[in-house]
Each structure stands twice: as C-alpha cells, then as structure tokens.
Design brief:
By secondary structure, the protein is mainly alpha-helical. 84% of the residues lie in helices and 0% in strands. Helix 1 runs antiparallel to helix 8 and helix 6 packs antiparallel against helix 7 (171-187).
Length: 224
C-alpha cells in the first residue's frame, strides 16, 4: 500500500460528508421555515391568536431547529476540511464567524419563541394580555429577520468567494450566491419568504458537490 491511497480515500470522503450534511440541513430548514411561515403571521405586532390553534406545528419546528443547526455545523466542518490548505484566513474568518453567528441567533430566537409558547400553554389568558409576550415576539422577529438573515447573507458571500477561488463547486453557484445574498442584505424586509434563500442555495451547492464526489473516482480511474 502506498502513502497516496489513504490520502486519496480521505479526499474523496470529505466532499460527500459536506454534501450529505448540507442536504440534511437544507431539507430540515426548508421544512422548519415552511411550518413557521404558514403557522405564525408575519406581523410581529399581531395579538397572538395563532397560539390557540397553531402552536403544535410551531413547537415541532422549534424542536427540529437544534438538529438543523447540528447538520449545518457538520456541513461547515466538512467544507473547511475539504478546503484544507486552500482556505484563506481572511475569508475563513468571515465564513466561519458569520456561520456561527447565524446558528447562535437561530437558536436564541427558537429558545425565546419556545418559552412563550410553553408559557401560553400554562397561562393562556394571562399571556395574551401580558406585555412580555409582545416583547418576546418582537425580539424573536428582530433576531431572525434583521440580524440572523444578515449573517446568512454574509455567509453566502464569503462562501461564494471561496468557491470562486478554490473551484469546490461550479462558478454559477457562486454567482447565484452573490445575487441571493445581496437580496437578503438589502431586500429581506420586503420579501416574506426570503429566509428560504439560504437553505435552497446550500442545497444546490451540496447536490453539486455530491455529484462531483461520485464522478471523481471514475475520472481518476480513467486517468490511470
């Protein structure tokens, strides 16, 4: 056995791990956002009538968020391992930092939302009249739609830049990432379903990486 064989196997495993983790994250987050979007009104100042009839799908979505976050961290780790020595320190800092901030804000918003849903199940009448509910609802809205979504945009910009310089995914995905990220940064307030942009873009990149990972062994055998 030569020294190149184990290194080759590792280099072929890493793109598949990143792609599978990215697909799991995307599928879960799309489902989570869909549940929340159809259950919770977009207006952060609405009186909370949805808590009486649609709290169960919201709780399901909130309970799935930690698993989506874990899948995203796996995707992030496998992607950085895939880059290896090609990773630039400047873009790596923005790439890694924006991803962690996005996950942290997503978890924080889910924790706040879960708290007032649980409190409503115990004191429904008191919660509807309390200012605490409206404050928590506004905080959750701002965390997700102002801060977390901007971090998602920065993650897409930094990742698209890394894709262009390292060619770990097709160039058109990076260009699409720039366009969609600018939409998140400057137009998310006007687009109700804008949070779907990140998981859909990660899904496209993951599928592309997975296809490339399965093609590569055949290409290498052909070269031999």
């Amino acid at each position: 056995m030569t020294h190149n064989e184990p290194l080759t196997r590792v280099s072929l495993r890493t793109p598949k791990a990143a792609a599978i983790a990215g697909i799991v994250f995307s599928a879960m987050l799309i489902f989570i956002f869909w549940l929340l979007r159809v259950s919770v009104p977009a207006d952060p100042l609405e009186p909370g009538a949805w808590l009486r009839s649609r709290s169960e799908p919201v709780l399901l979505a909130l309970n799935l968020i930690p698993f989506a976050g874990i899948a995203f961290l796996w995707f992030l780790g496998a992607l950085r391992d895939r880059l290896g020595q090609l990773e630039d320190r400047f873009f790596a800092t923005v790439f890694f930092g924006s991803a962690l901030l996005f996950v942290a804000m997503l978890f924080a918003a889910a924790a706040i939302a879960g708290a007032f849903v649980m409190a409503f199940s115990e004191w429904p009448d008191d919660m509807m009249k309390a200012n605490t509910f409206h404050f928590a609802r506004a905080v959750t809205y701002n965390l997700m739609n102002v801060y977390a979504i901007k971090m998602a945009g920065m993650f897409m910009i930094s990742t698209s830049t890394v894709v262009i310089y390292t060619a770990i995914a097709p160039r058109w995905i990076a260009i699409l990432g720039y366009v969609l990220a600018l939409t998140l940064l400057f137009g998310s307030y006007y687009i109700g379903w804008s949070f779907m942009v990140l998981p859909i873009w990660v899904l496209l990149m993951s599928i592309s990486m997975l296809i490339d990972a399965f093609r590569r062994p055949a290409d290498m055998r052909g070269d031999d």
